[in-house]
Amino acid sequence: MPILKIQMSVPLEAAQVGALQREASAAVAKVLAKPEGYVCVTVECGKAILFGGTDDPAAFGELYSIGGINSKNNNAIAAAVTEMLKKYANIDGKRFYLSFFDLPATNIAMNGNTFA
Known about the structure:
Blueprint: E1 3-8, H1 14-32, E2 40-44, E3 59-65, H2 71-89, E4 96-102, E5 109-110, E6 113-114
Parallel strand pairs: 1-2, 3-4
Antiparallel strand pairs: 1-3, 5-6
Helix pairs in contact: 1-2
């Protein structure tokens, strides 16, 4: 059930968004050792983001997961997503924050039931 949410200031074409989502989904599934069928990736483009006092291209993201949130995995995912944002949106890694949230299974549901 990992959920990766990314908001960026850069507008992207639908094909670029789809490619970014597919690449991010595969990376999250691999690093967290979760079935990709449970991974959700959202990308919102063209958002007004002020980062470091400027409106230069920037982004922020949030990753939610039941387990798998730890220093090793967080660093691997941060590196992968940072590279993707550079590749697809030319966003410098110094203008991207990614926060990680380890959720208890009782606090996330799918198909009408929690994962607990």
